[in-house]
Amino acid sequence: MTAPNVLLVILDSVRARNTSLHGYGDRTTPFLDSFAGEAEWYRQARAPSIHSVASHASLFTGLHVDQHGVTKHESRLAPDATVWSDLAERGYETGLFTPNVVVTESSNLAEPFDTVDGPRRDPKHRYFEDALSPTDVEGHQTNVEYLRRCVASGKPLRSAFNGLYFLSSNKEAYDPEREAGTEYVESFLQWSDERDGPWAACLNLMDAHFPYEPVQEFRSAGTEELLDVHDSLSSPISKDVAASEEWWKLRAIEALYDDCIRQADDAVATLVDALRERGVLDDTLLVVTSDHGDGFGEWSRVDPRVRAAYHSWSVHEVLTHVPLLVRRPGGERGGANDSLASLTRFPAVVEATLDGEAGSFAVDDRAFASTHRLERPAVMLPDDCEDPERYGGPWRAVYEQDGDDVYKYGTHGSASATIRVRDAQVSDRVSDDDGGVVAQSYGELEGADVSDGESESLEDSVEDQLESLGYIR
């Protein structure tokens, strides 16, 4: 066989707990349920963080979050440190297909890829073609600086109007229908069809990411009423409920989230069916997973003062326990795997596959999950939020396997706990401390010089997209 293709599919924000694959009551993942018969299904897989930028950096490098230090939207990761750069050196053509602005625009995680598709905004740069526009100026500029340039341009009124036109046309909110997973699957399939040699791609599908607005085909009974509740929450929703204490609204819109998971599952079905029909599936390492889950008001077991909301803070199991299915070239080694697994193993699995071996996502000793969010809770949360510091990071967890169970050791400030996890649905707190496991384990991690710092500022259009996607800024 020639060099196998590599395809990483990330179902952004899909938590294991809400998938029928992991025993959820509603049939949210009918395709993944059946696909597990021909793929290796890890029932105890953990994401390395709860935030796209940090989890993707770990997936791409094989490093834990506290090793790579890529934790903010503006973070910069050394492209040469990624598995995609390694694949490019081996002669692979690489592609990234996603509407995720965190991956494509606010950070530089898209830099190692030859082709990048998304997000699909269509910004209008100017109304008057013969006058100055904000896009004519490189780098960040304040409104006052732009107005000064307008005056100096010789066409101040037209240039000023172009500035207003640019701002209004680029504040378009995230459009779930235009950015649906099937749209990016179609784009990826066209791209892969045009490759002459081996390819390696990442598909990050945002169907289950906030805003939870399933397309018409996947809307269940009562969707319209639930959308009214959904729209009554201002974005960022975690900021809203932390201040308003209207946690019931989060619980209500979880049903919309379930519909969105069903939509994402259908996109994967379309993808796999197309690869099979093209005769490409058996020549491809296919990994289907998620970068993190979302919270809908679940109380933290590590720090009982805090409830999980969206993916803004905490290392709750609903945020870190994710689905993971691996179909190797030829479709061998299907079935369930109860070993503790970490997504940081992705580069190692790719390397093993290229060497003709069956690499594993299972860890030898322990798995890690951590987040530094929120970095500045007193500033980032509203003034009327009671005790905002309780949401501040870092939050850290260490996982170890003991027989059929996984033990989670977690810390947040002075709070700590040991939690026994049976599966994605059942877990219980067994101790009010972590026995010092977290401090010891994190103290043994060695740092890696792969972070290139942060961007000084983000464009207004990127900031607007981040806000529309629910991120606290």
TrEMBL record:
<dbReference type="GO" id="GO:0016787">
    <property type="term" value="F:hydrolase activity"/>
</dbReference>
<feature type="domain" description="Sulfatase N-terminal">
    <location>
        <begin position="4"/>
        <end position="344"/>
    </location>
</feature>
<feature type="compositionally biased region" description="Acidic residues">
    <location>
        <begin position="446"/>
        <end position="466"/>
    </location>
</feature>
<feature type="modified residue" description="3-oxoalanine (Ser)">
    <location>
        <position position="52"/>
    </location>
</feature>
<dbReference type="InterPro" id="IPR000917">
    <property type="entry name" value="Sulfatase_N"/>
</dbReference>
<dbReference type="Pfam" id="PF00884">
    <property type="entry name" value="Sulfatase"/>
</dbReference>
<keyword id="KW-0808">Transferase</keyword>
<dbReference type="GO" id="GO:0016740">
    <property type="term" value="F:transferase activity"/>
</dbReference>
<protein>
    <submittedName>
        <fullName>Sulfatase-like hydrolase/transferase</fullName>
    </submittedName>
</protein>
<keyword id="KW-0378">Hydrolase</keyword>
<dbReference type="InterPro" id="IPR017850">
    <property type="entry name" value="Alkaline_phosphatase_core_sf"/>
</dbReference>
<feature type="region of interest" description="Disordered">
    <location>
        <begin position="425"/>
        <end position="473"/>
    </location>
</feature>
<dbReference type="InterPro" id="IPR052701">
    <property type="entry name" value="GAG_Ulvan_Degrading_Sulfatases"/>
</dbReference>
